[in-house]
Known about the structure:
single chain, 3 domains, binds heme C
Amino acid sequence: MFVAFFCLLLAAFTLLTRMTYSMALAIRREQARIEEEGEEANLYRLAKMEESQQWTYVGLVTVIVALLLCGYMAVLGTPWERHLMEWLNIVVRVMHMTFGIAWIGASFYFVFLENALNRTKDVREELAGNLWAIHGGGFYYLEKYKIAPAKIPKDLHWFKYEAYFTWVSGMSLLFVVYYFNASAFLIDKQVCDLTVGQAIGTGIGSFVAAWILYDTACKKGLARNGLLFSILGLGLSAAFAYGYTHVFSARAAYIHFGAMLGSIMAANVFFNIIPAQKAMVQAAKEGRPLDPMLGKNAALRSLHNNYFTLPVLFVMVSNHFPGTFGHEYPWLVLLLISAGVAGVKHYLNLREKGQLSVWVLPISVLILLCAAYVTAPPLHPEACGKVSFAQIQPIIAKRCTSCHSAKPSDDTWTAPPNGVVYDTPDDVVKMKDKIMERVVLTQTMPQNNKTGMTPEERELIRCWVAGLSQ
Ligand code: HEC
């Protein structure tokens, strides 16, 4: 039965893939005919063909999801389950990175264009400005229109799928890494004793709440005053950072902060920037006067997105830095770093516009230095008595090897996390610096203190490592 269903799905997959090919060919032929024979009559037919092509893609994606689900059910409970999740993680993560780079790259590029536009020398009346550039061995000359060209060109490039796909792949990754492993990664019982459903609901609900708050503030016109809006934004960010670190494990809190900002960015594109652009194109096609506010609002949202990029990028790599999320006040560190890097972005924007900004960069760097300072370990740790390996070995065996062993006994970790094992004395000694970092300085191990390590045990580990380093 199961095998028959699987074969059916495979057949549907092959058929649909083949269909996308023949449809694309047919559409190309139709386009060529319209070009030769003159337009209008066949345009309706073309639109219909394009619509069926899109439905074929929807069908294809549905079949792929069904195939993945089947695959998952087939390996459920076997050692391949983890392996499948790992590969899903790899595929979705690489997709997320690729779309994200395309999106943020385009965002940086267009804000740069806007900032660096020549608006004064030899600019035609209908233009806002132009710019010469050289890249990849070619010269480029770009022109920006004040409002819209007299005739909207047929081939107009839109930049939207980068944003949508970054968001969709990011949300998928959130599920693969955090929501499917909620009890291991998302929930920290010492922070807040949530059920899996409550935790996931809080996460997703928070993205919706953040968007509504931000969007309402923009619509009420608060965004017109840049300084006021920045202060308001910082306050809201602080509230979310504080809230997240009080419901989730610290690393999940960081990721949620980034996903919240990323969701606002994608929603800006989806609900604001693209609809405004569509309305502009439509008005220009119908020869109606353009509402200049449409473009202005879209530009403002786009600028907000630009300021969110660096904080989001930091958050996306923050999981590699337990020194940040492992701090006693993780929300404060997150806020300092976000404010610091957004300040750096502000400096870059001002520079591109050719404006002098003496204090923006030093203040931003100072904020980042503050973050580095508050996360620093004590410069003069308390003196230690001699601690031998024999004293700490039982602690490691009791608190760590349920996960960090070639054959873990933990209910979630069936393979040693990050490949780290503590089965022999040598294994422990060679990891001593990382153990110091994770167990003593940031206290991010044992993960969510699942094995109940005591402060006295941490102190013994500290003194053992300190003795080795002398
Ligand atoms: C409940 C399972 C679990 C227990 C118990 C646990 N760890 Fe971990 N450990 C993990 C996971 C998962 C990771 C990978 C994610 C991360 O780095 O936070 C990890 C990562 C680490 C790393 C980082 C490895 C790297 O490549 O950077 C160190 C060091 C570490 N653990 C030390 C310890 C020590 C020491 C103990 C015992 C005091 C311990 N862990 C107990 C789950 C656990």
